[in-house]
Each structure stands twice: as structure tokens, then as C-alpha cells.
Amino acid sequence: MVRNLIIWFFCLVVLLVSFVWGRQNPIVYLFTVSLTPLPVYLVGRRLGNLAALLLALTVSALIFARQPGLAIIVEYLGFGELLLMGFMLSGLESRDYTADWAIIFTVVALTTLSLLFASLQMFISGVTAREILFQKTLEITEMLTGVFSDGDMASRLQILGVPLDKLKYLIQYLLPALMITNTGLVAWLNVVLARQLLMVLDWGKPEPPLYHWSTPEWLIFPVLVSGFLLLVPVSFVRLVSLNVLLVLSLLYFCQGVAVVAIWFQRYQVPRPLRCIGYPVLLLHPVFLVVIIIGLVDVWLDFRRLHQAVDA
Description:
Blueprint: H1 2-24, H2 26-32, H3 37-47, H4 49-66, H5 70-75, H6 77-94, H7 99-125, H8 129-147, H9 153-156, E1 158-159, E2 162-163, H10 164-201, H11 220-229, H12 235-266, H13 271-280, H14 286-300, H15 305-310
Antiparallel strand pairs: 1-2
Helix pairs in contact: 1-2, 1-3, 1-4, 3-4, 3-6, 3-10, 4-6, 6-7, 7-10, 8-10, 10-12, 11-12, 12-14
């Protein structure tokens, strides 16, 4: 009982410290915000869903107590969404959902909540969807400028091969897909890290490896259709197909990482090199290669998953 309380309070302190520190340093915020669901997820897997819910509510209450008012709720709604993500992931897995389906259901639920909040904001404030997209784009570009504001780097830095001064146009057109893929990538990253921590700390039975991640074979048809629709000389059709392709690319990125993971295991790559190799997969242009590996795996079956089933 005492040990469980220590774990719970330690996770509470980690969340509060990362939140306060992130507010003071944009670079710290960029890295710590993605790991916000991790403490809640670990508490849920170790102590149960009620403890995870209590942790998320306690953190939210303490943050609200520092600066009561509606403004703090709106400003840090994203932080609360990440706390909810950790609770949902642990809750779904405790109900025997596999990790991939827990991630998919969590992304769908959080995306639906975001759309409902945006609709409510449009109804109350009288703003249009275009104005909300412009506002969100401005917030994202301001955050990126704050992170990379070393001298004149904000005007010269290239992110994924795109100059920062042109990035806002891409964000505005691809914002729906970027929100979904960002939510999915954060959920996937936290599940992967949590599984490693659960194994190291010996909390519960070993989890099934995530290198078994495999997208349904029929999903290749929406990819092909969306690719062909990019050739249609209609801007709206191109915009929709590009957003769909970006969302689907996340699924094949996860499958590509699963292929790389089994290669690491097959060739017995030392763990320190794996710790370096996995973050490299997120860098440009390596992540494009990983997506291609995930697509090609549908036909070549690098992991021999289908052969194992047939046998």
C-alpha cells in the first residue's frame, strides 16, 4: 500500500514539474508535453483505472488552483487532452484491448472530442471554421518560432525540408490530418515507452511485442485511391486526398517501425544502439523510408507473420 502511494505521488510530482518547467522553456515543453500521458498510463496499469483518473483530476485541479478562471481551461485544454489520453489507453488495455486497437480507439475518441469542442466554440463565439483553422495555425507556428528562435534561425530553419516561413501554409491546409497523426504518434510513443518501463520495473506480466503491428491488407486500396486523386485538377479533392494520405502514412510508419524492430532483434543489435536508432527513425528523410518499408511489407512480409499463420 505504501509503495503504491509513493508511485502515485511520484507520478504526480513528475507531471507538475514537467508542466511548470515546460511553461518556462519552449524547448522543454516540446519534449515533455509528448510524454504527459506516460505517468497516467503507468499508474493505470500498475494501480488501476481509478488511481489513474484520480491522478489526472488532481493534476488538473492543482493547475486550475494556481490561476482560476475560464482562460486557464481553454489555454491548457491540450494538456488535459493528453492526461485523458493516458487514462483511456490504460483503461482500454485493462479491458483486454490490444495495444494497436487501444491506440486507434483513443485517437478516434480524442479527435471526436476536439471536433465537438470546435463546434461548440463556433456556436458560442460566432467564428467560422476557417477562422479556427487560422487561429490554430498561428498558435502552432508561434510555438515553433519560440522553440527555434536562436538568432535568425526562425527564418532559416527547415523542418522536414520546408522553410519555416512557408510552414504555416502547409499547416493550415493539412491541419486536420496533422492533428490526427500527432495524436496517434503521441499515443503510440507513450505505449512503446510504457511497455519498456513495465518490463524493466517488472510490473505485471510481459506484454506482447509491438513488432507484430500489422495494418489490414485492404487498407492499401484507400492509399492507392488517395494517391490517384492527387492528380485530379480540383483543389478540394486534392486537399482531402492529401489529408487522408497523411493519416494513412502514420499507420504504415508504425508498421515500418515494427519491421525495423524485428530486424534489430533478429540481428541482436545492442540495446544502446537501439535507443539511438529508434529516435533517428523520426527524422527527415528517414521517416519516409520507414513509411515505404511499412508499405512494402504488405507484399514482401519481412517479418514472416503471414507465413507463421499459414504454417
